[in-house]
Amino acid sequence: MDTSDVETFSHSDRQSIKDSIGVRARTESTTVGHDSRSNSDWSVSFRASEGALIRRVDWRMLPLLGFLYSVTIIDRSNMGIARTAGMGDELGLDIGNRFSVASCIYFVPYIVLQLPMNLVLRRFGARNCLTFYICGWGCVLVGMGLVKDWRLLVMCRVLLGALEAGFFPALIYIVSTWYTRAEVQTRIAAFLQASIAISGFGAILSYGLTKIGRVGKYQGWSWIFIVEGLITVGCGILGYAFIPDFPDKNTFLSKKETEIILRRVEDDRGDSVPDAITLKSSLHHLKDWVVWAHAIMYMAATMPSYAGSFFTPVILYGMGEWTQSEAILLSAPPLVACAISAFAIAWISDKTGHRAGFIVLQAVMTIIGVLITCYASQNGVRYAGIFIFSCGAAGNMSALLAYNANNIAGQSKRSVCSGLLVSFGGIGGILGTTVFRQADYPRYIPGTWAVIGAQILMLVLLAAVTWTYSRRNALARRTGIPLEGQHGFLYIL
Fold first, then answer.
1. Relative to the CA of 290, which of 79, 91, 142, 179 has its CA 20 to 30 Å away?
2. How far apart are CA 456 and CA 479, in angstroms?
3. Which among 226, 266, 229, 272 is positioned nearest to 247, based on CA atoms?
4. Domain encompassing residue 234
5. Nearby residues of 96 by Cβ (< 8 Å), 6 or more positions away
6. Is 489 part of a structural domain of the chain?
7. CA–CA separation, 459 vs 295, rounded Å?
8. What Pfam families does this protein map onto (predicted)?
9. Closest among 380, 431, 472 to 111, alpha carbons compared
10. pTM of the full structure
């Protein structure tokens, strides 16, 4: 596209978007009575061009975001692989709960900084913030490969959590501002599950790096962090030129194309123009108990997902049938399978316009999978259980993010909710890395039942939230009182 066609919106432009959209929509609607046939032909043509524009946005955003998030997953979850490859012995991580401490300490700054970092995203710009985060944690990762004391590893994990805190909620926030509610889950699943699938090959990369062996003072596990850290810094530098921003700030669409994107969002939920993010508005949004229920449900979904990423290589090696190298390689296929499963369910969910039932399905899959992994007698069957619970847990992460995003109007609330959800996802990470204790190796029975309890809690809250949404919809239809401050807005169940 000729860059001379690219125009960005000034503050005054953004303030007039709603008015201009409304005027044009009314003008188009008045032409129907004069020439319905020509208007029908125009509508077909417009929908086709609109579809092409959305596909262009898809290809511009989703592969890049998926790849960058896969880098995040690889960088945060290679602890289990490094431990299996010799880090545990060299740093004494098998003593007491050192490995669990080093794993879960990451989530303390990750949780605390999520919301404030999301609230300043618009002030500093998505591209600037995301590039800083990526390059910063890449440098920290290199430092993790150089440590010789487990306490220094813990310090690096704290810095890693601080730098990664704002990344994922920013991605969810950005994606949800580009699409209508009927399109969100497929898109979130596309970049989230594609990144999980790509990260599965990170296990293969890590396996290859362990084969470097000792070079100078550093063993193979150190090169996992050093090489992957350098790759991360390179991705951050290259990504600066391509990382997308919010629709009203983008530079890859013309002003007319951007207006079409904003109009679709405005027609769908009325929040194409960002409202002011203040402390008062943030506290107001946090008064709704449903917001907290969504956050706790997301925590329940991330708990088994994080546990799987940290402990799958350890569980496989503990079965006694595979070597350390084979256990590392076998941890990749479940991630690919869960990406396929989650995307398929997300596509069906978007097509049917239904959310809650698919969340129930994937919670049940998680429960069945962890029970099989824990209690089955044959190793092949236990490995199949890892596939099942991985598909259920990872699928519910994107499903719950979409369920929340679908039922929000207003970008300030969107920013608050995405930050809060991912913060609670960090709590799920802490639980996932601590309930699977070294003392319970290799079957981790207490951890299994903790995961099951989390899924039951999720289902109870899901029933309460869905019932509340249904009642609010009925009240809005009966009285005409607008939901979320938007006339015509109804919650998606």
1. 179
2. 35
3. 272
4. 60-479
5. 438
6. no
7. 13
8. MFS_1
9. 431
10. 0.74
